[in-house]
Amino acid sequence: MISSVFSNFLTFVAGPWSSLWFAGNTLDYMALLLCASLGSAFAFRCGLFNLGLEGQIYTGGLAATCAMLFLPPSCPPFVLLSAAAAAACITGALAGLFCAFLKNISGADVLISSFLLSASLTPVADYLIAGPLRGDEGNLLATARFNVVLPHILPPSHLTLSLIFSLLLCAAAYVFISKTGAGYRFHIAGYSPAFARYGGIDAAAYYGPALGLSGALGGLCGFFAVAGTYGLCYQGFSGGLGWAGISVALIARNRFLVLIPASLFYAALKSGIEQILLSSVMSFEASYLIQAVILISAAVKFPVRTLKRRI
Questions:
Q1: What is the DSSP letter of 144?
Q2: The domain spanning residue 244 has which CATH number?
Q3: Residue 69 CB: number of other CB atoms within 10 A?
Q4: Percent of the chain, pLDDT > 70?
Q5: Which of 77, 71, 61, 100 has its CA nearest to residue 207?
Q6: When comparing pLDDT for 12 and 274, which is higher?
Q7: Long-range contacts of 11-14 (CB under 8 A, 24+ apart)
Q8: 205-231 as b/e: b if 16+ CB within 10 A
Q9: How far, CA to CA in Å, does 126 sit from each of 59, 162, 227?
Q10: How many domains, the chain?
């Protein structure tokens, strides 16, 4: 019994890095999480809760797919990938801006409006993938494979340049918030709207940029998934990626540089759990329970200073 537990623990810790295949796939999932959590953190920083990230990733990936499939094949790969990324970002940004518009004109709660918009767009995307855009290469509910994809870094794994782009975006977000006047006003508008008004900052003016940028990053995450990880768009490809991104943002307390180790931790946790499932008789329910306990423990903010004073 003890040896089995110890063996599972070693598999959980070392499994995600046991080969180029597993290490590359773990880092690839980290890149997707980093981009998604960055979008969630931008909304959080402005005092908004974007629950529509899952739908923005899904529809952004679908928009990128349309660009990849319908643009002339003679386009240079850089132009094709850039157009697909732009289509994904614009689609996600429009979804976020629509929620900001509803909040500004009617005071609609962003948490509710973003979730409902995401829930309404997902069936439309499912229909398009399984219907007009479906490829004829097999029985999978997916489009045809793309002729051009993002360059891979660590073959034969799925890791692509998305990791580099996500790290650069994270660094740029940190510089923007911490080192610029516009970033300071953006942060203060969400952190304390009353103090922002006292300083002459209109907090409501930042709802649109915050949600638009959050949605754009969600759409970009969808582009990274379809044009990098999978090389096609299949039904349900987001697979809870938006919710995982929100979890990573909460674990990192919405601090942009902390998103990097937090996303790596979450990706390694997911990969380690999958390794245990492949190498033991552990049930899916038990693995999800372990994952939930670890994530809750990482997300809970313990009152360390209060505890020290009491001691």
A1: P
A2: 1.10.3470
A3: 17
A4: 86
A5: 100
A6: 274
A7: 11/272, 11/275, 11/276, 11/279, 11/280, 12/272, 12/273, 12/275, 12/276, 13/272
A8: ebbbbbbbbbbbbbbbbbbbbbbbbbb
A9: 10, 25, 18
A10: 1
* Distance from C-alpha of 233 to C-alpha of 227, rounded to nearest angstrom: 8
Which residue, 38, 68, 45, 73, is CA-closest to 220?
Answer: 38
How many C-beta atoms surround the C-beta of residue 108 within 10 A?
Answer: 16
Q: What is the pTM of this model?
A: 0.90
DSSP sequence for 233-298: -BTTTTTTHHHHHHHHHHHTTT-TTTHHHHHHHHHHHHHHHHHHHHHS---HHHHHHHHHHHHHHH
Do the Cβ atoms of 222 and 92 come closer than 8 Å?
Answer: yes
Token code pair at residue 109: 């709660």
Torsion of CA 102, 89, 38, 228, to 10 degrees: 150
User: Are the C-beta atoms of 215 and 96 separated by less than 8 Å?
Assistant: yes
pLDDT tens for residues 97-154?
999 999 989 888 899 999 999 999 999 999 999 989 998 877 788 999 999 999 999 8
Based on its alpha-carbon atoms, the radius of gyration of the chain, rounded to whole angstroms, reads 20
Residues 265, 204: Cα–Cα separation, whole Å: 35
Domain that holds residue 101: 2-310
Angstrom CA distances, 116 to 50, 55, 99, 220, 239, stand at 11, 10, 10, 21, 18
